[in-house]
Phenylacetate--CoA ligase family protein
Amino acid sequence: MKRAIFDAKTRLLMRNDRRAFEVMVRNERLGGAAFEELSRGAATRIALHAFDSSPFYRELYAGAGFGREDVAEAGNFSALPVVTKAALRDAGDAVLSMTVPSSRALVSQTGGSTGSPLRVRNDQAAPTAAMWWRIYRWWGVHPADDMAFIYRRLRQGREALVYAAQWWPSRHLHLDARAITDDAIETFVRDWQRVRPRLLVAYVEGATAVATHLARTGRTLPTSAVSVTAAMLQPGQRALLESVFRAPVFDTYRSAEIPWIAAECEQHEGLHVAGDQRLVEIVDDAGRAVDAGTEGSVVVTDFSNEVFPLVRYEMGDRSRRLDGACACGRVFPRIAPVQGRLADVVRTPSGRRITGGLSGLFLGDPGAIRQMQVVQAADYAVTIRYVPTTPGGARDAAATAVRALRTLLDDDAVAVSAMEVESIESQGGKARLVISHAPDAP
Ligand SMILES: [Zn+2]
């Protein structure tokens, strides 16, 4: 019934999104060569649009020696300069396209948890609805199904009423990730049992907090699919969420700047890039592509934001490309779940910076812990704080992790220890993998 009403409503009101959705579902199954051509064409087109209409990009590309014909040449795309968050912040409105009507610009603010906030614009004309409809379909969820959300922002008053009317007759439950108290969770659980949502969409930390509370009293909240975002999903967290929500967990990669970048399919073998809408490159410090399997910096191009072009935009995250085809048969390339932030760095007194491998310290026994965090003091001493799956049950795994970290650091002057904790602190629903108070060596 709900699906039928949704169908009628979108036929009437969202004709463009429906059309985009049908094309997107077909694009997943293109042949390899046809997909490459689509991707290359879209990347070149948006870079040229940026050059032609955004003063920021015109100056950036011209300054690097690229003329209009060079930008129009598909083979040059991966040599175009990478755009950083700091550069966008400094450029301000110079990033905006001069040819796209400003009425299409939707303001989106990125979180300030890893630096100062950045104000970007999403494009109202982008087929964003179709993008999430398609990904929900990978999970067996229909956009009209009842859903629950654990988010960092709640709609209030009139905005909440408009939202509910828009979604009628589908029901959406919300829990504010910034204020997860036992009382708030109990209210959420009561609403859940009344609505029985088919999908939970949540920040990793929010979902973990709710699941931990329920697991303590042996309760479950069955649903069909759980989708998480905004932080690294640690293996123990996935196991906890699957046991409480009795459903597969789908990791997603998205941001305020670029929504719906990548998501897991039913195979759970990495995240498929929504490759007809975005290009994801994994690059080294010089902006050059690294081999599949090698960890590097994530650089994303959004094909569908013409208002505020994001071309070769450095996300500030680390990941790696996965080789080979996915068993699901979709042509879209895959990346490993995001392995932490570029800012997740442990330092040694001798001046080394360790950025990779930290997320894998417990890989020998991933089920032993729910979550961990590496904390480095000002004197370089490192503590692995971890939440065990059962109290006292991860001492061996922690000892192994300490040894693994000592090997990574390769510096006897750095003290390494492990500490069992009840929870890992998060800021606004996001927990950092590494917190370092140590200075860069002189
Ligand atoms: Zn797949």
In short: The longest strand covers residues 369-376. Residues 346-436 form a domain with the GMP Synthetase; Chain A, domain 3 fold (CATH 3.30.300.30). The chain has a mean pLDDT of 91. Residues 265, 267, 272, 326, 328, 330 surround zinc ion (CB under 6 Å).
